[in-house]
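Might I ask for a little of your time on a matter of protein folding? Here, with my thanks, is the record as I have it:
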Amino acid sequence: MNIDFNDGKWLNEPASWRADETGLTLTTDEKTDFWRETHYGFTRDNGHFLCFPTTESFTAQIRIQGEFRTLYDQAGLMVRLDEKRWVKTGVEFTDGEPFLSTVVTDGRSDWSVSQPFKELDDFHIRVTVAGGAMRIQASRDGRHWPLLRLAPFPTADRYEVGPAACTPERSGLTVRFSEFSIGAAVTTGLHDLS
């Protein structure tokens, strides 16, 4: 089911954003991020997240377009239970180039990056939550979905999911989100890339 971005609820609404029937465009505020403790010793919960409620199992996917050029520029999907239990996954700019990035947080954050493809100015991300696990896949074209990460995630009766964007080192990143859908959890085999 395609989602109307105007039906979402903001956590840390950006000063500049607009939504219509085809997508959401936002520009990040200064020094925004989601992170808890690990390595850096700080907690930040001021990134931009447009939340939509889900049931206990679901698949959500979205298309992301932007020019990620500054350290830690990031955009993608977030799944959240509360300020201590959440996942953000999508693109993040680090070490001079964009990577696919996932931060899984259960009290403290971890961070993993990979680069199954380098063209990250326009890509898709898909998250499936079911049975205490989260399956994260990325795609260049919205048809072929290689696995990015499989991680444990707490079971719950409902979650919040939606687009998220942050710029820990600056402001002014403009991101376009489109083709956002939430539906029944994908049940294909782990190595089925469709």
In short: Residues 62 and 180 are 4 Å apart (CA to CA).
